[in-house]
Amino acid sequence: MSHGLLTGIALGVAAIPAIYYLIVLYSGARYFHAASRRMAALPPDFTPPVSSVKPIRGLDPDAYENFASLCRQDYPEYEILFCVDDREAPVMGVIEKLRADFPGREIRVLFGSGRDATNDKVAKLARLVSEARHEHIVISDSDVRVRPDYLRRVVAPLADPKIGAVTCFYTSIEEKGFADRLQSVGMLSDFYAGIVVAWQLDGVKFALGPTIATTRRHLEGFGGYAAIENRPADDLLVGRLIAEQGLDVELLPYTVETVADYRSMRDLIYKRLRWIVVMRHMRPWGHFGLLFTQGLPWALVAVAIHPTAAVAATYLGVYFALRASITVLIGRWGLKQRGVFGKLPFIPLWDAAAFAIWVTSFALRSIRWRGADYYIRNGILVPAGGTPAAE
Description:
This protein has 391 residues and is an alpha/beta fold. It has a domain at 43-188 and 199-263: Spore Coat Polysaccharide Biosynthesis Protein SpsA, Chain A. Helices cover 50% and strands 17% of the residues.
C-alpha cells in the first residue's frame, strides 16, 4: 500500500469526528424544536400532590438558597422530605431556619437510611420514597436551585400514562474559578451533545441526577431504589429500568441550576474520571466509541501526518467552528444560557482535558466516591480498600 494511500486513509479517519459533530447539530436542532413544542402543550392543570425528596450528605455551598427555592414553588400541595445522616449534621441548622422562614410548608426530616448499602445516597432514597406521603415523587440533588414553576414543569408530563419519568438539563451558577468554567463548557459542548444524539438515535433511556420526576408505582416496577442500592450511576439506571417497563422517559428543555463547587482542577478531573470509568463498565462499546468523537486530537493527527497550511487550516478550523456551533446551539439557543460566547475559547482546553481523562480511564481499576475506593464488579460497587487508584 502506497504512502499516499495510507495518508489519505488516515486523513479520512481523522475527519470522522466532524461527521459526529454534524450529527450533533442536526440532533440538537431537532430536539429543541420538538421539545419546545412539547413543553408548550403540557397540561397546566395537572398538579397532583407531590413528595419532593432530597438525600443529604454534608453541607453544600449556598444550601439555604438551594432549599429555599423549593419552598417558593407555585404548586398547590407538596411536601419536602430530607434524609440526613444524624441529628447533629451541620445541615440541620439550615433546615431549622427553613422551617422558621417558611412555616406554611410541610418539611419533614428523616435521620439515616436504616439500611446497610454501599451506595448511601441510594439507600437514603429507598427510605425517602418508602416514607413519602404522595404517589408522585420528585427527586433532586441537594445542590439544585429551582425556579417557582419547577414542580409544575417537571410533573406535568406525567399526566400522559405513557410517560414513566421526567428529567431535565442542569447548568452551573456562581462559577468562581477556572475549573468551574471548564466544567460548564464541558457540559454544554460535550455531555449534552452526547445526550441529544442519544435522543435522536435511540430515545431517552436514562435520567439525569439533579432532577427525576416519577411515581412510586413506576419505581416499584423494578424493585425500587433498594434494588440498586449497591450499584453506581443510579440516575442512569432509574431511567433505564423505567424505560424497560415499556414507558417513555421525557427529557425537558428546562434547566435547573446547580451551584458550582469545584475547588480545583483536581476535583474536576476526579469527578470526570469516576463518571467515565463507570461508563466503561456499564457501556464498554460506547466508552470505546468516544474515540471517534474527539475532534481535537484527530485534527492534530491530521496535521502531523500531512503538515501543510491547508490541512492545518481545514482540520483545525472546521473542528473549532463545529464545536463552537454545538456550544452555541445547545447553550444559547436551546437552553437560553447567558455568557455562552465568552466560554468558546475554553473549548479546546476542555477537549484536551477530556481526551487525556478518557485515555487514563483505561488504566484505572477502581474509583473513589465519597471518600472511599470501590471496584465495579458485574455492575456492583465493591469496597476496594488499600491505596486509592482514582477519586
